Amino acid sequence: xxxxxxxxxxxxxxxxxxxxxxxxxxxxxxxxxxxxxxxxxxxxxxxxxxxxxxxxxxxxxxxxxxxxxxxxxxxxxxxxxxxxxxxxxxxxxxxxxxxxxxxxxxxxxxxxxxxxxxxxxxxxxxxxxxxxxxxxxxxxxxxxxxxxxxxxxxxxxxxxxxxxxxxxxxxxxxxxxxxxxxxxxxxxxxxxxxxxxxxxxxxxxxxxxxxxxxxxxxxxxxxxxxxxxxxxxxxxxxxxxxxxxx
Length: 246
Hints:
The chain is an alpha+beta fold. Helices cover about 15% and strands about 40% of the residues.
């Protein structure tokens, strides 16, 4: 795992990288797992493989978030976006621990674990339940060029943002330089952006979004998140839904 401080990137412990579609018929997800990963981190491929397993679970929302702070190590990540680096750091600031590393799994926006350790990810999921995560039902339906997002009611004083996350369901990358030189890695549910599409005030509501937004940067599906906080300092994920084929 590699760790990155909030202000600078520092390489530490060996083995870790640190600095017409129809309505979704799957059960309500029990958790959201975001994997902050890098093609330039030798510890990440096992976590990327685990994410492929998570993606097969209908009760999990698994999203890969490729970061760019290891690009100087000899290989520029072909999927990375600095916005995901900012998102990861924002999580660390919101938690108060500022821990930023790869592979880092952030569960429901509130707990984190080494992304290649399924037991640690499960513990993070259990911890997230104590923070009120995943308590609001969210569903999606797409037709006639529009994605309709339906959000259920929550606490009377609840507020959260509604976010559309376009994803590429599968990306196969051959890495020719850096720590993973010679490896071919498969990435699943690769985020292409995180787009705010509405504000939820605790009452049941629907939000209509142009389907073209879900095709951002060659995305072929999407995830919807109901999340507290802001883009810069994301908080607990109250609900989520998966788009077609996820």
